[in-house]
Amino acid sequence: MENANRVPFRGTKEQEAQLLDVIAELRGTKGCLMPIMQKAQDIYGYLPYEVQKLISDEMEVPLEKIYGVATFYSMFNLYPKGQYKISVCLGTACYVKGSGGIYSELMEKLGIEGGQCTADGRFSLDACRCIGACGLAPVMMINDDVYGRLTPDEIDGILAKYN
User: Fold this and answer.
1) Would you say residue 159 has pLDDT above 50?
2) How far, in Å, CA of 50 to CA of 150, rounded?
3) pTM reported for the whole predicted model
4) CA 80 vs CA 3, 25, 101, 126, 137: distances in Å
5) For 30, 79, 132, 155, which has the most beta carbons within 10 A of its beta carbon?
6) pLDDT digits over 69-121, tens only?
7) pLDDT of residue 6
8) Looking at residue 24, what is its pLDDT?
9) In sequence order, which residues have a C-beta less than 8 Å from that of residue 163 and are 6 or more positions away?
């Protein structure tokens, strides 16, 4: 789970107290792990190592199990989302038209992998399966802005709009 580009954890004592209250309330309820993890993500915005460890310690559940659940279900995020959320469509129409290259170019330029956030918290990068703009393939979105018919050489200019 360690990564050189990892955004520092900035949890507060208030957030920790809120999570401990949730754990105290739900502990002992059958199947409570998922709801606790969902509430933790609501509180922190994602499930960093520190939050997973707190849940593990308080619930007396192995950290490996917490991590396994967090990585199995797509609803959980191990990294925070950036101020600018980049989503690249890797659906069939977009992929055939080169979105894989766009995605690779973004990972290289931002210095992060898919699902991660830049260390400054500015950009996060995710892949999706369809944006619903197949006629504009390949397509990516940055927050609510849609960019279509993309080529890798356009990436610098697009990113510069958000700096």
Assistant:
1) yes
2) 38
3) 0.73
4) 13, 26, 24, 12, 28
5) 79
6) 999 988 898 988 999 999 999 999 999 999 999 999 999 999 999 999 998 98
7) 64
8) 97
9) 122
β-partners of residue 86 are 125, 142
DSSP-derived secondary structure for the chain: ---TTPPPP---HHHHHHHHHHHHHHTTSTT-HHHHHHHHHHHHSS--HHHHHHHHHHHT--HHHHHHHHHHSTT--SSPPPSEEEEEE-SHHHHHTTHHHHHHHHHHHHT--TT-B-TTSSEEEEEES--S-GGG-S-EEETTEEE-S--GGGHHHHHHTT-
